[in-house]
Amino acid sequence: MKEYLSLIIWSAILAIAFGVLWYKGQIKRFAAYVQETKEELKKCTWPTWDELRGSTLVVMISILLMGLFTVVVDFFLAMVVKAMVQQ
Length: 87
Known about the structure:
Blueprint: H1 2-24, H2 26-43, H3 49-86
């Protein structure tokens, strides 16, 4: 019984919130936003699969090179700090 009461209360809260949003025109504004977004996305040019694969490969290689650079610089800086501490 307690579970049903909780469900009824939450349903009432959602219904009231929906009613307030509807009354203030927020639902209509959101629907217009979604429609405008769909129209704008239709105007976009999407990459082909070959372009997408090529871009993905470029990103993966860039990440690998940046990671390698970070590891090398970190290694050399660690060596410099150890040398400074030992002196």
